[in-house]
Each structure stands twice: as C-alpha cells, then as structure tokens.
Amino acid sequence: MTLDKLDLPIVGKPTSYKTLPNRYKDVPEIGQPMEPNVEAVKKLKPTHVLSVSTIKDEMQPFYKQLNMKGYFYDFDSLKGMQKSITQLGDQFNRKAQAKELNDHLNSVKQKIENKAAKQKKHPKVLILMGVPGSYLVATDKSYIGDLVKIAGGENVIKVKDRQYISSNTENLLNINPDIILRLPHGMPEEVKKMFQKEFKQNDIWKHFKAVKNNHVYDLEEVPFGITANVDADKAMTQLYDLFYKDKK
Question: Are 152 and 173 in contact (CB under 8 A)?
Fold first, then answer.
C-alpha cells in the first residue's frame, strides 16, 4: 500500500476484503471506496480525504456533501503512480520516502525493459479482466496493459482512450494471441472458477493458439490489480518471467 510505504498514518479506510498493512488494522472503516459514508468521515475530522482520479466524477457529490476539497491521484499507470508518489511525498513531508520508493521502481523497470529489449521476439498478449459473472478485455491504456508493455509483451488490443472494452471472442480468435492473461477484480476465487468454466464450455477458446500451447495464465490480484500499486516491481518481474520462461 502506497501510504504505508510512505509511512503515513490514516484516520479512516474504505471497506475491503483485501489484507491491509498491520498498522491500519484497527483504523475505522468508512464504507465502500466509491460510496463512503459522509457522516462516518465527518466524525473522524480528517484534514485530507484522498482518492484516485479514475473515480473523480463519481466522487464529486461525496466531497460536496463533506464540504471539503478532493485530492485525486493518478494510479492508472506506473508512470502516473510514480508522479502521485512524488506529489504525496511533497504534500505530506515524505520526500525521502517517496524518492526511495520511486528509485526502487525505476531500477526494477529499467532492468526488466533492458532484458526485454534483448529478446528477438515479443509475445502477443490478450488480457482478460474478470468480475463475478462477466469479463472485459484490458487495452494498452490499462494499468495491466502498461505492465505488459514494460515486460516486453505486445497487447493485441490497442485503443485511443479506454482501459477496458467488451470482448468478441470471434474477433479475438482472428488476432490469435500467443499468451492469454486472466486477471480477477473482486472475489478472485469466484472469478477464477468463472474463467475456467468459460474456457471449458465455450468451444471457441480451444481454437486459440494460447490455449493449445497451454499459455493461459491466471494472475493474482496481488501483486497485480487493476490500479497501480507498490507491488509493481513484483508484477513486472512475474510478467517478464511468464513471457520469456523458455528463453532464459
């Protein structure tokens, strides 16, 4: 968690099934990330209420009711997160911690990019982002798409401005990726079972090169996730190892 890495205390946290750093274990919950409880937040008397730019429009009514300025940070890409880390460091007097964290991420990123650049062939990668009951295709503008590019993969879905789009399996088959990544967003075990059922019961998947070659991989929410996080170093490394495990 970024705030933990920056050694920042908090007075309230969103409700989450994820395990948070131990220092935040007893911090009061304020409701869902996109629907925080205004009264619960007011009782905590925060000086700053932080959110992410992805849900800025949805959060405006909440900040209006709270009568406070909203602070939004970009966690849509590794670069965006690193800029946000610098901003948080400047804002909360954690410049040294922010620099140390960004220096580490830059070091890992550079190492992975250098190794990937030496590879003669880069795999074509399809990324499926699943929620219970359905899934979308992650484009090159998504955070996971950003990581795939850094790790030396070529995202088969490129668009101008959307992070996720609806999928058409017939069109995806025409692209015929070398590798398929399946990423859960919420209830990971349920989503994993959903993907397994989809690939088993929908006959078209067996015609994909990635399926025939057993190059379909289920990613864990940690270290991945749909928004940038400080486990990006592990995520980049894991993706590179998946893409080039036969070329070490």
Answer: no
Q: Is residue 51 part of a domain?
A: yes
* Calpha distance 186→228 (Å, rounded): 15
233 lies in the same domain as 146: yes
Q: State which residues form the domain around 11.
A: 1-73
Does some domain include residue 87? no
Cα–Cα dist 52/59, whole Å? 9
User: Which residue in the block uniquely carries the two structure tokens 């190892």?
Assistant: 241
Nearest CA-CA partner of 127 in 105, 110, 148: 148
- Does 248 have pLDDT greater than 60? no
Helix (H) or strand (E) holding 198: helix 188-201
Query: Is residue 235 domain-resident?
Result: yes
Report the CATH number at residue 217. 3.40.50.1980
Task: Name the phi and psi angles at 237, rounded to 5.
Answer: -65, -45
The answer to whether 29 touches 13, Cβ cutoff 8 Å, is yes
Q: How confident is the model over 49-87, as pLDDT tens digits?
A: 999 998 999 999 999 999 999 999 999 999 999 999 999
Q: What is the pLDDT of residues 183-196, one digit of tens each?
A: 998 788 999 999 99
pLDDT band, very low/low/confident/very high, at 173 (cuts 50, 70, 90) = very high
Number of helices (H) and strands (E) in the chain: give both, helices first.
10, 10
